[in-house]
Structure formats: C-alpha cells, structure tokens
Amino acid sequence: MTTEPGEPQEAQPKEAESFPETATHSTPKQEGEGALSQSQAQRSLAEDSASHLSSNSWIARSPARNPLSFRTMQTKVTLLDGSLFTCTVEKRARGVQLFEKVCEHINLLEKDYFALSFKDADNNKNWLDPSKEMKKQVRGVPWNFSFNVKFYPPDPAQLSEDITRYFLCLQLRQDIVSGRLPCSFATHTVLGSYTIQSELGDYDPDECGSDDVSQLSFAPNQTKEMEEKIMELHRTYRGMTPAEAEMHFLENVKKLSMYGVDLHHAKDSEGVAIMLGVCSSGLLVYRDRLRINRFSWPKILKISYKRNNFYIKIRPGEFDQFESTIGFKLLNHRAAKRLWKVCVEHHSFFRLMSPEETPKKVLSLGSKFRYSGRTQIQSRRASAQISRPAPHFPRCVSKRNMLSRSLDGGTLHDHPRTGPVYGPSGSNSCTVLMVVYQ
After folding, report:
1. CA distance 210 to 241
2. How many angstroms separate the CA atoms of 191 and 253, rounded?
3. Distance, CA of 117 to CA of 262 (rounded, Å)
4. Which domain of life is it from (predicted)?
5. Digit-coded pLDDT (tens) for 126-153
6. Each residue of 111-126: pLDDT tens digit?
7. Which fold has domain 262-357+366-384?
8. How many other C-beta atoms can be found within 10 angstroms of the C-beta atom of residue 382?
9. Interior CA angle at 387 toward 117 and 101, to 5°?
10. CATH 2.30.29.30 domain residues, the chain
11. How confident is the model over 342-376, as pLDDT tens digits?
C-alpha cells in the first residue's frame, strides 16, 4: 500500500525469513531451483556492497541545488534612456518591491507619476499593480518590464526636481518619435531644437553639422527640411542650460491635444470603430483621429464594465432631467477590465485628496480593485518636503538606430551608443535606443 507524504508508515518486519519464501522475491521461483550456494551468496553480497559504495559516491559528487533558485526570479527592466536594469526578486514579492529598486537605481524621488509595465501573452500592455504579487500578474511570459510615465502631470513646472522633468522628457520624446503623440511640422522643429540644446549644449558648427543632426531622432517622418529648421532655431539658444531647455520643451509639449492620453480600441453602440482616451481631465472619444466627444471626470458619476462592455453614467445636463448611461464595446473582457482599471487610477490620482480604501466586506459585490498609490495632491506635498541637493546626472544622446523590431511591433532603428547611466550605483554603461516607427 502506498502512503501519501505525512501519513504514518506501518512497522516493517526486521527479518525477511518471517515472510513466506515466495514473498521474498519479486518474481516467483522457477521449478527445480534450489538454494544459493555459499560461493554464490558471497559473490552476490560483494556485488551489493560495491553497488552501495558506488551509489554513495555518486550522491556525494552530485552538486547540491540551491533552494533559493526555486523562490527567486531574474527580472529585466528597460529604463527610459534605453538602458537595462536587472535584479533578482522573490517570486512572491509584490510589484512595489521591484518598483522601489528601480527608483533607487535611477535616484528618483518623485516616483508617483511613474510605473512598471509589461506585455502579456497577447502582447497587450499592462501596468504592474504594486500591491499584488508579481507572479499572480505576469503569467506565461518572461519577467521583462518597462519603466514608463503612467500619469502625465498637467503642469510639469510643478515638479520639484530637474531629474524628474528629464525622465518625463525622455518619455515624451519616445511618444513623439513613435507617433503616439502627433505634432505639426512647426512643433516638431521647436521641440527638436530644445532636445538638441538639452543633449548637446550650445550650437557648435563642428559638432552640430547637418550630418550630426540627421543622426538624431525628432519625428516619425523626419525630413531634411525639418533638420535644417531645427539647426536654425538651435543657434539662437546660446547660454541656455539643459534644465531650461527641458522646461521649455515641456511647456510646449503639454499644450498638445494628445498629451498624456492613454488610447484604447473600442466600438460605439452602432459598431463603428473608435478610440477611447484616458487622461488627467477625463475620458475622450476619437473617430478617424478626430476627437468627437469629451467626458470630464466631474461629469462622470460611475464607470463600470460587464463582459466586454464598458459603461459610463453621465450627470444630467442643463436641459436633461435624468442621468444617462453610455456603453462601448471592447475586444474582450480583459480589454474592458483593463480600460476600467486605467480610468479608476486616473480619476483617483488626479481628482481625489487621498485614495479610497479597499472594501473589506467578504461578500461585497463587484471588483475590490482600488488605486493604492498616492494622489497628485499627496505627491506634490511630498515633493515640497524634498531637501536634498539637486542630483547631478548626465544626459544621454538619443540617436537614430539601425533597422530592428520594437516591442510594440513597430519598426525601430538600433545603433547602440554607450554613455553614462545616472544613478547612485556609479555604473558607466548605457545603451540608448529610440523607437522610430515607419
């Protein structure tokens, strides 16, 4: 009888002779077979002894497996400058533990605007929940993450430290070059000129020639005319510090209509393909790249989802008597839940004084998900308490890269450039990658 681990074992007899003779063999004895001779018995005993010694020596030579390898996982985080940060975390660790390690590595204190993202098995972007265990969120894919801006501040000037604004600039440059943040020709030239001033400093004919500028990325469809206009503007910025150039960059980019908008594919009640955008001010509706509707957070009473449907309940207007509910259809249930969570987080961060508490009732209906981080008001209060000297950090130059494949499925160019990494670790290696969609 076999026993499960933890069950008491039956007492085994000390001598095999107490069992019937046929029970001492795994196969029945053949007819005519007698007892073993003394020499055969001695030879069998010697073979058993040699086999026992060989087994013991094999066990002694086999390396002991590290028990920690079963409880830890190697993670890779792609930072905003394109460099790779690797560390080992426990499989049961929560998302906040990895996030804190990344922020410590890059010397970032104003971290509430940032988060870690990962791609699931269907190549959909998901935000890592800091309050949940990572192994319950990242399933079936390698533990590869990206450090990104999650909440775009409406007024970047209210950020306390230059290093925070620099990371925001890096994210926005990626958004512009990838096409997620569309700009006009004039805006591309202005933003590109501030980018050169931040990364290369004052105009120098020997270092800022047309060939050098053409190696930098400013727009998805970069032209020679655009590069010449950027050089023309760059000549007028002599004496401007990198921090000042980044502030001018942010003051211009925050005015763009798609600044900080997180887009999700959907369909309206008539089955027409649309895009739903979540931002600091509310929920936006786009059709054929044009905004056709806007629902501000104060106007929205309730957001919910059921199966692959996403609903918003709207306050009655000036001439309306009753509340109205508007529904949208998404690809599947996971897409609807993902959009709902993004709306909950943006509303909580930008509108609430403090995050709501998670419901504690065992039999409460609906999802228990609540935004668990600090709100924008709490983050600004914490930033006002920062008393350290302004951290010094070098700025990496983002170059146009060789043809390769990006994580988002677009086309990127990859010419690795080695430069210093900002952070307290003192590492001096950095691979700069800028995504260029074609």
Report:
1. 22
2. 8
3. 13
4. Eukaryota
5. 999 999 999 999 988 999 999 999 999 9
6. 999 999 999 999 999 9
7. PH-domain like (2.30.29)
8. 15
9. 30
10. 262-357+366-384
11. 999 999 999 998 877 766 655 445 566 778 889 99
